[in-house]
Design a protein that fits this description.
The protein has about 210 residues and is mainly alpha-helical. The chain folds into two domains: about 70 residues, lambda repressor-like DNA-binding domains (434 Repressor (Amino-terminal Domain)); about 110 residues, no CATH class. Helices cover about 60% and strands about 0% of the residues. The protein has twelve helices and no strands. Helix 1 runs antiparallel to helix 5 and helix 8 crosses helix 9. The radius of gyration is 18 Å and the shape is globular.
Length: about 210
């Protein structure tokens, strides 16, 4: 990957269209393609142009034929040659939101209310960006009302998985930091489902739930 290279609109828009047409969530596509969620989010948002290997993996996961894959690769090559900043959404949360404290750790969360408090800590850690900035940085995957409910909803509940991950990504969490957050979310979901389910979760560790 070349994370400093921002995608030309043609390539980024094509990727967004192809992903939308699959009907898959970003996390499901990430697993299917073997591409880290953070990387896939950056490609989709026009903030990074992938190398050929990643582009082919994405094309295969989406189900493109040989001709369509070649067309996507040509768009990628044009994006690399252009060197032009994307005129679409290109908000880099790491550039905009400067961490102010040590990175929050959700591992002690025993329920949705605790996780909500941990997410509020992430928001502060990210520099307390406005809901509008977070919405824009998410490339349309999060709405301000959704973020507000996630952080301040009176009846705390486990957030929807993809939106939860997207919030963490736009706040600046890298792939290595996501394991404990994924583990915590899945553990709390299992607890909600009852002891028969949660009893099977005892052997889980953060490294095993990517």
């Amino acid at each position: 990957m070349t994370p400093e290279t921002e995608a030309e609109p043609e390539f980024a828009e094509m990727v967004r269209t192809l992903i939308a047409n699959t009907g898959l969530s970003l996390s499901s596509l990430s697993q299917s393609a073997g591409i880290p969620l953070v990387t896939l989010s950056r490609i989709r948002g026009g903030r990074s142009v992938p190398n050929e290997k990643v582009t082919r993996a994405l094309a295969e996961a989406i189900g493109l034929g040989e001709a369509s894959t070649d067309e996507l690769l040509e768009m990628r090559d044009r994006a690399l040659r252009s060197g032009e900043p994307s005129r679409g959404r290109r908000h880099n949360p790491r550039r905009n939101f400067v961490p102010r404290f040590g990175q929050p750790d959700p591992i002690r969360a025993s329920g949705p209310a605790d996780l909500q408090e941990a997410l509020r800590a992430v928001h502060v850690w990210a520099g307390s960006p406005s809901l509008r900035k977070l919405e824009r940085a998410s490339d349309g995957m999060l709405r301000r009302s959704t973020i507000s409910d996630m952080l301040n909803g009176k009846n705390a509940r486990l957030p929807e998985y993809d939106r939860y991950l997207t919030f963490l990504i736009v706040c600046g969490m890298d792939q290595a930091s996501m394991d404990v957050w994924v583990y915590t979310w899945r553990r709390l979901l299992a607890l909600e489902k009852g002891p028969q389910i949660s009893s099977w979760m005892g052997g889980m560790s953060p490294a095993s739930v990517r």
